[in-house]
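for the record, two folds in this file. i put them one after another cuz i was lazy. first one right below, seq on top, structure tokens after. the second one comes after a little note so u can tell where it starts
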Amino acid sequence: MVWLVKDVKRLQSLNGKLERFDWDQFFNTRGIDYKGDEVKTAREFCWGNIAPALPKEIGRVPLAEVCSLGARHYVENLDLYIKPREKWIVRRAPRVMVPEAEWPEVCTGLVRSGVCGLMPADELFQVDGRPLLNGLFGVTKDEWEGDFEVFRLIMNLTPLNGIAEPIKGDVDTLPMWSLMNPFFLQPEETLLVSSEDVRCFF
């Protein structure tokens, strides 16, 4: 109780003027991840942006052949990991960030490269009578190929994650930032967190 009273008195003694804070501007600012690397933003793309970043071997190796144990079982038996219907979290489909005029070339390129394939509409997984749709966007590699900025191709699988169990492994046993909530430091105390501590969270 003594410490609480001390903190209240300390706050009462502070003087200052709060400026208007622009949250939109704050979240438009690029951030850094736990390794100190810049977090890249999602970008619209065309085939010229993603083609240089796709390895020639992409789509050639069966996924199950490079997995083992639980990961291989997950890949070969995905249907077993779909949650019961009452546990589904149905999310709105994320954007596929391809300009309308670029669709033909992007689709043709993805199919020819082996990244995507063609399926009959009635074989697509349905949620509430509609196909389960996910998102697609590009992230810059800070490289250029001729006139095109080179992007990594990223698929946003948030809708799938809402209906399927994830591969957890030992991830649930790792520490996380939420475990820092019980910490309460007094004015004369200091918490030192190193980059190694943060990396160990992952």
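(here's the note) second protein begins now
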Amino acid sequence: MERIKVEHVSLSYPDTRKGHKKEKIPALHDISLSVHDGEFLVIIGPTGGGKSSLLKAMLGIVPYEGTVEISGIDSNLLSPRAKRLSYVSQSFLTYNFMSVYANIALPLKAEKVPVREIEKRVDEIAEVFGIGHLLSRKPTKLSQGQQQRVALARALIRHSDAYFFDEPFSNLDPLIRADLRKRLKEYQKTHHATMVFVTHDINDALLLADRVVVIVDGRIAELGTVDDVLRSTKPEVQALVGGVSHE
């Protein structure tokens, strides 16, 4: 089943340079792809290549031309709540006036989930990310890695149709990145969750992806399994993955 379907999506941003206000800067050019139910799709590409723009179009937070369907329904016909999508950025977004527990529980409280169910699910997701002992603390008392674990837990506590991640590990040290990759992949497999993950790091793709889409200059340069991407002979793909082997 196709959980997300992108058809002929193009996207441009206003040119903010003086004297160019009526002009547009293209970011995506006629992108079409599907994300299957329970799939981990990694979007990789150079800085400014369009990968985050594609993620934002899928989420429906930027205007675009073309069609994005969520579970078979045109995304533009769905309210933000009806889309049932979760999102994590690289910015460690937490609410510092709340405890870690309250941060994680926030989406369920908004959905008026019963208190006992909230307590159960917070405990479960906190265990997944190794932060059960931090639930009473405020985010300001946590390291960057711990804060990002809180953000991941808050996103994944919802039963969403799909989960989106925009470079969530980019500001973390290698050991923490490796640990969070493992925990996220295990969660995705266990819950058959649909995930879309933007990164510039080929190691994220190697360790997380069921399929990889390479975005260069706003276009799909390659789309397939990790092996397909590593075997690509296209120069723009080799510039990203050159020297990496996968066995």
